[in-house]
Amino acid sequence: MPEAGTERTLVLLKPDAVKRGLSGEILGRLERKGLTVVGARLLRVTPDLAGRHYFEHAGKPFYDGLVRHITSGPVLALAVEGRGAIAVVRLLVGATNPATAAPGTIRGDLALAMTPNLIHASDSSASAERELALFFRPEDYHSYVRTDQEFL
Prior knowledge:
The protein contains 7 helices and 4 strands, in the order βααβααβααβα.
C-alpha cells in the first residue's frame, strides 16, 4: 500500500493514446506533476475485463462503444501514486468531452473525440481500489523514492 498521506490510483492509456504514440507524452505529464508510477502493464483488454471495468455503465447507450474501444488495441495500465493522486490525475486528464476540456489538460490538448478520449482515471478511492485490483496483483507494485523528492 502507499505511504501514509499518499493515494494510489489507476490510469489507463486507451488504445487511441497508444496507437497515436502519446503514451510517453501522457506519462511525462503525470511524472512532471510529481506523481510516481509504481506499476505498469501493456495489455489487451478482453471483453470480460472490459465488462468488469465498466460494469456501472452496463445498459447505458454508450456502453457498447466503451467496450468496443477499450478492446480495440493495446492499453497501458498504470498504477500511479502521490499526495492527492486521484484528484491530481483527474485535473490533469480534464473533462470527458475533449471539446469542453480545458486547454492544458490531457484531453483538452490531445483528445480528438468523446469515446476515443485517450485516458481513463479512477474517480474516487473506492473506484481506484476496485479498478487497480482488476489490472494489478499486489506483487506488481514497485515502491521507490523519486530522486526529485528524496529531500522533501
